[in-house]
Amino acid sequence: TVMAYDCYLAIGYPLRYTSMMSGRTCTLLATSTWLSGSLHSALQTTLTFHLSYCGPNQIQHYFCDAPPILKLACADTSANEMVIFVNIGVVASGCFVLIVLSYVSIVCSILKIRTSEGRRRASQTCASHCTVVLCFFVPCVFIYLRPGSKEAVDGVVAVFYTVLTHLLNPVVYTLRNKEVQKALLKLKSGSVSTQSN
User: Fold this and answer.
1) What is the average pLDDT score of the chain?
2) Is residue 26 in a domain?
3) Where residue 35 falls among pLDDT bands split at 50, 70, 90?
4) Burial label, 84 (beta-carbon count in 10 A; 0-12, 13-18, 19+)
5) Which residues of 15-160 form beta strands (DSSP E)?
6) Into how many domains does the chain fold?
7) What are the coiled-coil residue ranges (predicted)?
8) How big is the CA angle at 41 (ends 35 and 45), to the nearest 5 degrees?
9) Which domain, by its residues, includes 11?
C-alpha cells in the first residue's frame, strides 16, 4: 500500500515528489506499517496462546500459522477464527482498496501524459509493483478469506505466498534494470546463435 502511494506521488506529482515524500514522511509510513503489522500479529498470537491444547502437536503446514494451530486446540475456536477473519479481512481489504484507489489515480495521471515514451515509462514503473501485489494478495485472500479448508491446497498456496512471492521480488524489480535487460538480451542472442550452429 505504501509502495502504491509512493508510485502515485512519483507519477501524479513528479515535480513535488521530493518535498511530499520527505525523510520524515518515509519514516512515518514505515513506522505505521511496522506497528500495524505488530499489533495485528500480537492480537492473533495472544488469542492463540489463551486456548487449551491436547492431542497431536504437529500441524500439516509448512510454517507456524494461526489457522492450522487452531485445529490442535481442544476448546472452541470460533471466536479466534472470527477475529482472524475480521482482522485479516479488514487489513487486506483496506490495503487492497487503497492500492486500487492509488492505481486509478495513477492511470488517470498516465493518460494525461502527452508523450508515448512518458506513458510507457510511467507504466513500467507500476507494472512490477502490480505483479508483486497480485502474487501476494491473491494467495493471501485464498487462504484466509474463504470458508472451509483443504490442507493440501492450503499448503501449496502458503508456500507460494510465503516463499515464492519473496523470491520473485528481486527478479521482478531487477528486470527493470537496463544492465540486466542488456545481459538477458545478450544471453538470449548467444543461445539462439549456438542453437542455429
Assistant:
1) 79
2) no
3) very high
4) buried
5) none
6) 1
7) none
8) 140
9) 2-21+40-192
Angle between helices 2-12 and 116-144 (to 10 degrees): 170
* 197 lies in some domain: no
**Residue 75 phi/psi, 5° resolution?**
-85, 175
User: Range with the lowest mean pLDDT among 105-109, 134-138, 144-148, 156-160?
Assistant: 144-148
Q: What is the phi/psi pair of residue 196, to 5°?
A: -75, -20
Q: 11, exposed or middle or buried, with CB in 10 Å at 0-12, 13-18, 19+?
A: buried
pTM here is 0.67
Query: Is residue 67 one of the residues assigned to a domain?
Result: yes
**Contact indicator for 140, 154 with CB cutoff of 8 Å:** no
Q: Whole-angstrom Cα distance, residue 181 to residue 179? A: 5
Residue 33 lies in a domain: no
Whole-angstrom Cα distance, residue 197 to residue 193? 6
148 phi-psi bin (left φ>0, alpha ψ -120 to 50, beta other) = left
| Model confidence band, residue 24 (pLDDT cutoffs 50, 70, 90) | very high
